[in-house]
């Protein structure tokens, strides 16, 4: 993915948002973390399954959630709980978007893997706008 992203002065508010990355493939998680940080966001943490994700949930505002994790296809359940229990803006990341597209109420959408930095950047900007409209 790489961390080649555009930043502008308006992005300073990104530091107010914390992003949780729920991904069991370490290199994908680290690459996504680099992109998120390059945009000026803080990373709440990396989780590779449901238990870790739920422990980190109180620290996050936005979450990227893979569908298939170390504990199975728990991504949709994690996403649902992050939205319902914590008010987190959830974006799913998967190679099979039809598995979650439109199936988790409150989720912002789906980014198809492998994701380019520009897709992550665009999605994070949408997530920030969605959160601003809620508060």
TrEMBL record:
<keyword id="KW-0614">Plasmid</keyword>
<keyword id="KW-0597">Phosphoprotein</keyword>
<feature type="modified residue" description="4-aspartylphosphate">
    <location>
        <position position="66"/>
    </location>
</feature>
<feature type="domain" description="Response regulatory">
    <location>
        <begin position="18"/>
        <end position="128"/>
    </location>
</feature>
<protein>
    <submittedName>
        <fullName>Response regulator</fullName>
    </submittedName>
</protein>
<dbReference type="Pfam" id="PF00072">
    <property type="entry name" value="Response_reg"/>
</dbReference>
<dbReference type="GO" id="GO:0000160">
    <property type="term" value="P:phosphorelay signal transduction system"/>
</dbReference>
<dbReference type="InterPro" id="IPR011006">
    <property type="entry name" value="CheY-like_superfamily"/>
</dbReference>
<dbReference type="InterPro" id="IPR001789">
    <property type="entry name" value="Sig_transdc_resp-reg_receiver"/>
</dbReference>
